[in-house]
Specification:
- The structure is a single chain.
- With 164 residues, this protein is mainly α.
- The chain has one domain.
- It contains ten helices and no strands.
- Helix 2 crosses helix 6, helix 2 crosses helix 10 and helix 9 packs antiparallel against helix 10.
- The chain is globular and about 45 Å long.
Length: 164
């Protein structure tokens, strides 16, 4: 079993997902943000402002990770949502693959906000998605996405972290 003793995410903030993943994984998540994807999805200026950067490039992004971690520790959930969005649009291949595997209907990685996912998220879906994709995609973004899906689509989400 891969569940941790954390409380359900329904009573937690999205920033708690990042905190449960830990500082090193959060640094990896910040480093995997694609400047090009931010521009494509018109998130560049928003991310630049949210990270308090005068200039946004891969170097300044990487250097901003400790400050991002501090903001997450302050339970800045709006910041956590923006950070998660920046990471996940940068990892759309993974997002599409996981959604396809779980059978969740989507349009190029994006699903309807009012979707009833209960039919798709059954039978240890987090563990199955982890086992299927952990060798194909980077660990930190995959764990973020699995937990983000739980946070966003389930009524009583559980934090998922694989055993070490």
């Amino acid at each position: 079993m891969y569940r941790t003793p954390y409380a359900t995410l329904a009573v937690m903030k999205l920033s708690d997902v990042f905190l449960a993943l830990g500082e090193e994984r959060t640094r990896q998540l910040v480093r995997c943000i694609s400047i090009g994807k931010l521009r494509t999805y018109q998130l560049f200026d928003r991310v630049k402002a949210r990270l308090y950067l005068h200039k946004l490039n891969s170097e300044t992004l990487a250097k901003s990770a400790p400050r991002a971690w501090s903001r997450l520790n302050e339970q800045d959930d709006e910041f956590a949502r923006d950070l998660a969005q920046a990471v996940l649009v940068s990892q759309l291949d993974m997002v599409r693959a996981v959604l396809d595997f779980l059978g969740i209907p989507h349009e190029d990685g994006f699903f309807a906000k009012d979707i009833d996912a209960s039919a798709y998220l059954k039978d240890n879906w987090q563990e199955r998605a982890w086992e299927k994709f952990r060798g194909s995609f980077s660990e930190a973004p995959l764990l973020l996405y699995i937990n983000h899906l739980a946070w966003e689509l389930t009524k009583e989400p559980q934090m998922f972290l694989p055993k070490a």
